[in-house]
TrEMBL record:
Gene3D superfamilies noted in UniProt: CBS-domain, Hotdog Thioesterase, HprK N-terminal domain-like, Winged helix-like DNA-binding domain superfamily/Winged helix DNA-binding domain
Keyword presence, Transcription: no
Domain CBS: from-to ranges: 202-261, 263-321
Entry coiled-coil feature ranges: none
UniProt keyword Secreted, yes or no: no
Protein name: CBS domain-containing protein
């Protein structure tokens, strides 16, 4: 009997498609989905959890699990009102249907109402105390309201918030504290936005050339001639990845030989939410030119190649600085200089933030400084992106707060694929730390 399109997908995929077709705001019930799709409640529950992980649904306090609009990655720096509630340990007084909306900015209402309205736009959040007129005016202008000091809202304002689907939130924290908490959350998201993920650069499965396991080497040859490529993922009838096939696999194989007999089975894969840096390290370490991207059920989502990784890294490096990581903050206090022999060195002072609970420099901080100095030494000779391969570190003497140190990396070996650096840390005339580091170079193949 020939399978219908509905029967050729798994129950798990059927549930995800069912959820994806629901209107934004629809409530998600394990029992209802199990009944509608014809699966067990356990299967429905697992699929709903996967949908939550992929951003299709979200669980909201006092509302339950609902279908939401997946947040585009270019809006990762925007907070939803629901997230603000969690950040400030708040209570929703009204407008709960608007919790999934994002806020573009927040306004602190420490001024007269007439002056305040100049700064309130639709989609903003007014942070204010027990000022009913300000609450109502902000809602009229399309903004949410965060009431500080533990105060509530009048019944009229709550009703207005419900009608406009604009949240009104109460927090016991003061205005300064909630503003600091929200600002910190936005700042953290800016850092996350800087981190490039596989899903940002992959070629989706709909645009990916692939083969089925029951196809033949003749089909592989025809696909090579049509596309100009020689590596393809192999999937089964449910679109699940079962292997990879390359020119090496088909050497000497008869034209009628099935692909699933010559392919490489159980290939290394990567998830869509994996960082590009991690994927690059995996590709270099394993000597892979192309990585399939799959979900938890091994369904093929797309592929990434070394060229994709390189383009992605080049793109992100051209973007303006958006948020600083711990590495950025550590390195910001060190100055790059040239010594008399022409070698590069980094000079700086140990700050309180760099120390451990014992008052001496943290080993992690010192390791970061040595590795980043080593990368800089390699990049002066050979352009490109680097991933750390191995590092042997020796901590010889403790460093105290306010100690001035000089980091001196010395390039001792460099090839097309990797570089090796001997790096030393000096405090005055004393050698205090030393490391031997090797780094893999990602170059275009």
């Amino acid at each position: 009997m020939e399978l219908t399109p509905q029967e050729t997908i798994t129950k798990h995929e059927q549930i995800l498609r069912y959820i994806g077709a629901l209107a934004v705001g629809s409530k998600i019930s394990v029992r209802k989905i199990a009944k509608d799709v014809g699966v067990s409640e356990g299967t429905a529950y697992r699929a709903i959890k996967d949908a939550e992980a992929s951003g299709l649904v979200a669980t909201k306090e006092r509302i339950g699990t609902v279908r939401i609009e997946p947040k585009a990655r270019n809006n990762i720096d925007k907070l939803t009102f629901a997230e603000v509630v969690n950040i400030v340990d708040g209570a929703v007084l009204g407008g709960a249907e608007g919790l999934d909306k994002t806020l573009g900015k927040f306004v602190i209402g420490a001024m007269q109402l007439e002056a305040m309205v100049k700064y309130i736009d639709a989609g903003s959040l007014l942070i204010v105390g027990n000022r009913e007129r300000a609450h109502a005016t902000a809602l009229e202008l399309g903004a949410g309201v965060l009431i500080t000091g533990g105060f509530g809202a009048s019944p009229a304002v709550r009703k207005q918030a419900d009608e406009l689907a604009l949240p009104i939130i109460s927090s016991s924290y003061d205005t300064f504290t909630v503003a600091s908490l929200i600002n910190r959350a936005i700042y953290d998201r800016l850092i996350k936005k800087k981190i490039l993920l596989v899903e940002d650069i992959m070629t989706p499965s709909g645009e990916t050339d692939m083969l089925k396991g029951n196809m033949t080497v003749s089909d592989w040859n025809a696909t090579v001639e049509r596309t100009g490529h020689s590596r393809f993922p192999v999937v089964d009838e449910y679109h699940r990845l079962i292997g990879m096939v390359t020119s090496k696999d088909v050497v000497g194989a008869a034209p009628e030989e099935r692909i699933d007999k010559v392919m490489t089975k159980n290939p290394i894969t990567v998830g869509a939410r994996t960082s590009v840096a991690s994927a690059a390290h995996m590709m270099v370490w394993e000597g892979i030119e192309q990585l399939p991207v799959t979900d938890s059920a091994r369904k093929l989502l797309g592929i990434i190649s070394r060229q994709d990784v390189l383009k992605g890294m080049q793109f992100i490096q051209k973007q303006p600085q958006i948020g600083e990581t711990i590495e950025d903050l550590i390195l910001a206090s060190f100055e790059e200089e040239r010594e008399a022999d022409g070698r590069i060195a980094f000079r700086g002072t140990i700050t309180p933030q760099m120390t451990s609970s014992f008052g001496t420099v943290s080993e992690g901080v010192l390791t970061t400084l040595m590795s980043q100095a080593s990368f800089r030494a390699i990049k002066l000779v050979k352009k490109g992106d680097l991933v750390l391969d191995s590092m042997s570190t020796f901590f010889l003497k403790p460093l105290q707060i306010d100690n001035e140190i000089v980091i001196r990396p010395q390039l001792i070996e460099l090839s097309r694929k990797f570089g090796k650096v001997d790096v030393e840390v000096h405090h005055g005339a004393s050698l205090v730390a030393k490391a031997i580091l090797t780094a893999q170079l990602i170059d275009q193949m």
